[in-house]
Amino acid sequence: MTNSPNLLVSPTSSRSVTETVNGSHKFVIQGYSLAKGMGIGKHIASDNFTVGGYQWAIYFYPDGKNPEDNSTYVSVFIALASEGTDVRALFELTLVDQSGKGKHKVHSHFDRSLESGPYTLKYRGSMWGYKRFFRRALLETSDFLKDDCLKINCTVGVVVSAIDCSRLHSIQVPESDIGAQFGMLLENMEGSDVTFNVAGEKFHAHKLVLAARSPTFRSKFFEGSEEDREEIVISDLEPKVFKAILHFIYRDTLTEDVDSVTSSLSCMSLVSDTLTAKLLAASDKYGLERLRLMCESHLCKDISVNSVARILALADQYHASELKSICLRFAVENLAAVMRSDGFEYLKENFPALQSELLKTVAGCEEDCSSGGKSRSVWAQLSDGDTNSRRVRQRT
C-alpha cells in the first residue's frame, strides 16, 4: 500500500526558550581588620546558597588573590560549590555603600551585552570574579567599611534552556456555552416546576433559575406566599415581553426582536411602546440590572431631538441613571431644537419636575461656559432662534 502523493500532513512546531534562573545572597564580613594579614590567596567564604539547582559561595580575599599585587587589592569571587559541568551563568557583585547615599560599587554581567555570552564554569571550585576588586587603602577610608564591617551582595543567574510546553502542548478552551445550555433547558421545559399565565399564554420555567437571576423572583418563591404555587398569573406584562425576560434570564442575551424594533423606529412618540422600553420597565420591576443596562444601551442609540424627551422620561421612571445622564447632556447641547419639539411639550404636561431638572442642568452648563468653557452658550441657542439642522448635533 502506497501513500497518496496528495496527502498533506499538518505542520508541527516547537519553541526553545533560554532564560536565567536568578537568585541572590547577602554576605556580611564582620571584623575586617582582624582578617587582614591572613595571607595572599587565602579567603573568607560565605555560607553556600542555591540558585538554579547548583550551590554557590562568595569568596573574599582580604590580602588579595594575586601574589603579584602584593596585597594592594582585595579580591572577590563567586565559586561553584557543588558538582557541575559547563554551568553557564551571569553574575553580579555589589559592594554596599553603608553611608546611605546609595553609591554602591557594582560589577555586573546583567546590564551589558556579552561578546562571548555568559561565563562558563567547568567544574566544582570554578570561580568568576575580580582579583583587583577594590584598592585596599581606599577601601579602609571609604563608606563601604563601617564599624569594621563590609557588606557584599551577590546575584547569580543560571542559564537554562527548555521547550516551551505551552506552545508544544497547547489546549484550546472553547467559549462558554452555559447560556445555550440553560436556553435548551427553557425550550425543553425539562424539570420545570412553575408555570406563568400571561394573558392566557403559558410559560414553563424553573424556580431556582429565576431566583438565582432575580431578587424579585427569589423573594416570591422562597420568602413570599407564592412559594408553593405551581401557576402564577402575570397581569401587567404582555406575553412577548415576558418571553423576552425569560430569554434573558436563561441565556443572558436579548432577543432578536429587540434589535429589529429599536433600530427601525418610525415614530418616536411611540418609543414607550417598543419592546426595549417595556423590557426596561420589566428590568426595574424584577431587579435585572444587566438587562437594564442592555436596554439603556439600545435606547441610547435612538436619542434624537424628537425622541430625547420621551426617552428621558423613561430613564427617569425606571431608574436608568446612565441613560438619563446622556439624555440630559444631549438636550442641553441641542436646547433650542429640543424646546421646540413635541417631546418637550410632553415633559411639560406629564413630567414637570423632570422639565425643571433639565433646566437646572442647562443652568449648570451655562455656569461652566461662563467660567471659561469653549462650548457655545445654551442660552445663545435660544436667543438666535436658529433651529437649522446645521446647528443641531443629532445622533444618527
Task: Describe this protein's structure.
The chain is of the alpha+beta class and 396 residues long. Among the domains are: 18-161, Sandwich (Apoptosis, Tumor Necrosis Factor Receptor Associated Protein 2, Chain A), CATH 2.60.210.10; 176-253, Potassium Channel Kv1.1, Chain A, CATH 3.30.710.10. The protein contains 16 helices and 13 strands. It has helices spanning 32-35, 136-139, 165-168, 178-188, 207-213, 215-222, 239-251, 256-262, 275-286, 289-300, 308-317, 321-333, 335-339, 342-350, 352-370, 378-384; strands at 16-30, 44-45, 49-51, 54-61, 73-80, 87-95, 105-108, 119-121, 127-135, 149-163, 194-198, 201-205, 231-234. Helix 4 (178-188) crosses helix 7 (239-251). Mean pLDDT is 83; it is low at 261-269 and 369-396.
Q: Give me the number of helical elements.
A: 16
Mean pLDDT, nearest integer? 83
Quote the beta fraction. 15-25%
First-residue to last-residue Cα separation: 67 Å
Record field, number of beta strands: 13
**Parts with pLDDT < 50 across at least 5 consecutive residues:** 261-269, 369-396
The CATH architecture designation of the domain at 18-161 is: Sandwich
| CATH class type of the domain at 18-161 | Mainly Beta
Largest sheet: 5 strands, antiparallel
Radius of gyration: 39 Å
Write the layout of secondary structure elements.
Layout: E1 16-30, H1 32-35, E2 44-45, E3 49-51, E4 54-61, E5 73-80, E6 87-95, E7 105-108, E8 119-121, E9 127-135, H2 136-139, E10 149-163, H3 165-168, H4 178-188, E11 194-198, E12 201-205, H5 207-213, H6 215-222, E13 231-234, H7 239-251, H8 256-262, H9 275-286, H10 289-300, H11 308-317, H12 321-333, H13 335-339, H14 342-350, H15 352-370, H16 378-384
Parallel strand pairs: 11-13
Antiparallel strand pairs: 1-10, 2-4, 3-4, 4-5, 5-9, 6-7, 6-8, 6-10, 11-12
